[in-house]
Amino acid sequence: MIDSELLARIRERDWFYDFELPDGTKTDSRLPPSIAAIHYYRRRKLAELIATHVPEAANLSALDLACHEGWFTQELAKAFKEVVGLDYRQRNTEAARDMMAAIGVTNVSFTEGNLETMEFREDLQADFVLCYGLLYHLENPMHAIRLASQLSRKHLFIETQVFPMDIAGPIEDGSYGNQRRAEGVFGLVPDYEGENSGGPSAYALVPSLNALLFLLHQFGFTHVEIIPPDSEAYEQFKRGHRVLVYCRRDQ
Question: CA torsion, points 64, 142, 35, 83, in degrees to nearest 10?
Fold first, then answer.
C-alpha cells in the first residue's frame, strides 16, 4: 500500500511520463498521446534489446543516463541486478526516488550529474549503459558520447534525434595539398534550457548519424548496430530523423 504522504507528493507533481501506480491509476502526463507514444515504443525496443542481446542481464549492472523521472529506469530494474539513474536536475531524481518507492522498485538508486561537464566516475561504470533522448539537448554531445562509452563495460544503447543529412569527405587543412576527412556534422539548434525536458543550456548540437557511428567506433565499440524501425515505430524513427543504436565491446 502506498504511503499517503508519498502518494500526495506524486499527485501534486506535474509529470512528464504517465506512470502506472499500484492502485490502478496513472500519473497525468502533460504530453499529448500522439507524442507520448514515443515512450512506449522506446520502452518496448529496450525490453526487446535486453532480451536478445543481454541474456545474462540478471547478474549485471545498468546505468540510465539522463534518467529524468525514471520511466526507463524502472524497465532496466526489471532485467538487471542493480541500476543507477543519473540526471542533472535534482527535482527529477527526487521525483524518480518517490516513484520507485511508490511502485516498489528496490534495486535502483539515483544521483545527480551534468553530462556536459562531468568527468569519468569509476563508481558509475556499469555493464549496460542507456542513453535515451539526450544527445540532441547538449552543447557538447561529443563529450557525452565519450563519457557514456567510458562508463560502459560492454553494452551501450543510444536513442537520439539526428541531423537529417550525412556529410563526409575531404576538407582542407592549411593548404590544398593537406586535407583531412570529415566524418559527419553537428547541427546547431536552440534548446529549451528552462524546461524540464531540455538540456542544461540554450543551445544544442545534433549529430548526424555518420558522426555518431564514427565516434562510437573510435571510442572502443567493436559492434555498432542500428536497430531498424518496425511497423509500429514512432514516425520519426520511420523517417530516419530519430535512431536507436546498439553498441557492444567484444573481447
Answer: 0
pLDDT 10s digits, 100-121: 999 999 999 999 999 999 999 9
pLDDT tens per residue, range 200-218: 899 999 999 999 999 999 9
Nearest CA among 57, 46, 16 for reference residue 198: 16
Which residues pair with residue 203 across a beta bridge?
190
Instruction: Report strand pairing: 169-175 vs 82-87.
Output: unpaired
**What number of CA atoms fall less than 13 Å from residue 237's CA on the CB side?**
21
Q: Of 133, 119, 115, 125, nearest to 17 (Cα)?
A: 133
- The residue assigned the cell 573510435 is 218
Contact, 28 vs 15, CB < 8 A? yes
Q: What is the pLDDT of residue 1?
A: 61
**Residues forming beta bridges with residue 242, ordered by sequence position:** 161
What is this structure's pTM? 0.95
How is residue 121 annotated by DSSP?
-
Residue (of 152, 141, 155) closest to 247 by Cα position:
155
Those residues whose C-beta lies under 8 Å from the C-beta of residue 239, and which sit 6 or more positions away, are none
